[in-house]
Structures are given as structure tokens and as C-alpha cells.
């Protein structure tokens, strides 16, 4: 690399024959830039981290009594639900809206015209989603344990289960967010297109309503999507075994949760490859 121009900092361009950085290295750099841009938008930062905390406060305050025949409390139930909703918010909703806006503002078209490998762009988005998802979950757990005495997993098995649910959940939802970003016709309509299915899924997946009160036909529809299984798996992490009686199958069904979330990771990747566009529809 050789420096060009004057002043500090200097700009570097590749010398003829010099290899460009790989996709992984560029993806890390892209991720750092995405995070820097995210934290510069204070309103977005506040909304992202406050969203699950505010809802946990509301539901734990409204349904503060012990849950009958489960040996648990509403706050314990809703901390699992809000973690799942927060994961989907920072991945599916965030990427679905932001990528659609970037496409509409020709950001993607300009990036596509650079030597940067396409994979680096998506790696940057994944880093953004992963870091914000971890921070949001940590903030929610601190809030829950401090104000509502939420019990955390007491053994390594519980934390390992939490870990693979988190990774499969955030990966599948991020890939779906990238895929749905191609649906809106413009950046202006992106929020409406993305938020509506997210909101519906929260109601039919047991996020806001106790799972044993959701109609069976709604649960059947919700079982086709990752949020329902992410919620159910996380309830298994944070609730005692007696609370499994609330579930339709009477158990946490970790195997099926892993299967469905894994299938959505593969299916979401296929959808991204088939549907992702660097230009908006007007440009072809």
C-alpha cells in the first residue's frame, strides 16, 4: 500500500499487483464502521435498548403475581419473551429496514461498484447485529435481576442452551431480515412492511400473551417461524421444569427448536441468495 495526498490521516491505495484485504478482514472493518454509525444515532440506540426493558417493566408490573402451578413469576416468564423479541428486533427488524433504506438511497449500488467483496458487507451487518443483540440481552438481564429478582441459569448446561438458542435465533432472524429487505418498493415503506409481520409474530408466538392462552390455530401458524421456538427454548432456560406444563407439548422440545431454527438458517440463506438486490426496482 502507498500513501497518497497530504495531511493527516493519509489515504492509502493498493499498489499494482498487491493483494487486497480478504472478505473477513474487510467484514471486521465494515462491522466496526456499522457499530460506529449505530452508536452515533442516539435516538436509535435508546429505542433499541429501551424497547425490551420497557415492555418487561410493563408486563412484570401488570402480571406481577405468581403463575399458578408453575413455581415461577410473570417477570421470569417475560424476561425470556423479551430476550427473544429483542433478538428479533435487532436482527430481523433492524436489517430489514436499514438495508431497504440503503438500497433506496443508492448506498448498495455504490458499494457494489467498489472492489469490496459482497460478503464483507453482509459480515459487517452480522457483526452489528451480534454486538447489539448481546448488549441488549445483557442490559435486559441486569434490569430483570436487579428489579425483579429474575433467576439466571444456575449451571453450565443452562448457559450452553442459552448460547446455542441465541446464536441460532439471531442468525435465522438476521438472514430473514436481509431477505425481507428486498420486499419494500422503497425505503419509505420499509418500516411498515417489516414491522407488521414482526408484530403479528410476537402475538402468536407467546411473547406478549401466556402461551397456554394463545389459540391453537395461532400457535400452529407461529410454529412455522423461528420466534415461537426461540421463545419456547428460552422459557426452558429461565423457567422451572414445572412451567413446561404451559407448553402445548408439555415439554420444552429443545430438539425440535434446534431443528426449526437450523432449518430457518439454511432457508434464510437460500432466500437471501435468491432475492437480494443491490439496486431498487426502478433501476432494474
UniProtKB/TrEMBL annotation:
Pfam families: ABC2_membrane. It is found in: Cell membrane; Membrane. The keyword Manganese does not apply. It comes from Actinacidiphila alni. Belongs to the ABC-2 integral membrane protein family. Residues 43-279 form the ABC transmembrane type-2 domain. It is a multi-pass membrane protein. This is Transport permease protein. Keywords: Antibiotic resistance, Cell membrane, Membrane, Transmembrane, Transmembrane helix, Transport. GO terms for cellular component: ATP-binding cassette (ABC) transporter complex.
Amino acid at each position: 500500500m502507498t500513501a497518497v495526498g497530504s495531511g493527516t490521516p493519509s489515504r492509502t491505495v493498493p499498489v499494482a499487483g498487491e493483494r487486497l484485504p480478504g472478505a473477513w478482514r474487510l467484514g471486521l472493518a465494515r462491522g466496526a464502521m456499522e457499530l460506529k454509525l449505530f452508536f452515533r444515532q442516539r435516538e436509535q440506540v435508546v429505542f433499541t435498548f429501551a424497547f425490551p426493558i420497557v415492555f418487561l417493566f410493563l408486563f412484570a408490573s401488570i402480571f406481577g403475581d405468581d403463575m399458578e402451578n408453575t413455581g415461577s413469576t410473570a417477570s421470569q416468564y417475560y424476561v425470556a419473551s423479551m430476550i427473544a423479541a429483542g433478538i428479533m428486533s435487532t436482527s430481523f427488524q433492524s436489517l430489514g429496514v436499514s438495508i431497504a433504506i440503503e438500497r433506496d438511497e443508492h448506498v448498495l449500488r455504490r458499494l457494489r461498484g467498489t472492489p469490496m467483496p459482497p460478503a464483507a458487507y453482509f459480515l459487517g451487518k452480522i457483526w452489528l447485529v451480534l454486538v447489539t443483540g448481546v448488549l441488549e440481552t445483557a442490559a435486559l438481564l441486569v434490569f430483570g435481576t436487579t428489579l425483579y429478582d429474575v433467576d439466571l441459569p444456575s449451571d453450565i448446561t443452562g448457559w450452553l442452551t442459552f448460547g446455542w438458542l441465541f446464536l441460532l435465533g439471531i442468525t435465522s432472524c438476521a438472514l430473514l431480515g436481509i431477505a425481507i429487505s428486498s420486499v419494500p418498493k422503497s425505503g419509505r415503506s420499509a418500516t411498515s412492511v417489516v414491522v407488521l409481520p414482526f408484530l403479528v409474530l410476537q402475538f402468536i408466538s407467546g411473547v406478549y400473551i401466556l402461551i397456554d392462552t394463545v389459540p391453537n390455530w395461532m400457535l400452529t401458524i407461529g410454529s412455522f417461524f423461528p420466534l415461537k421456538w426461540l421463545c419456547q427454548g428460552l422459557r426452558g432456560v429461565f423457567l422451572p421444569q414445572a412451567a413446561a406444563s404451559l407448553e402445548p407439548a408439555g415439554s420444552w422440545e429443545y430438539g425440535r427448536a434446534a431443528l426449526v431454527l437450523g432449518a430457518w438458517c439454511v432457508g434464510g440463506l437460500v432466500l437471501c441468495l435468491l432475492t437480494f438486490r443491490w439496486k431498487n426496482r426502478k433501476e432494474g
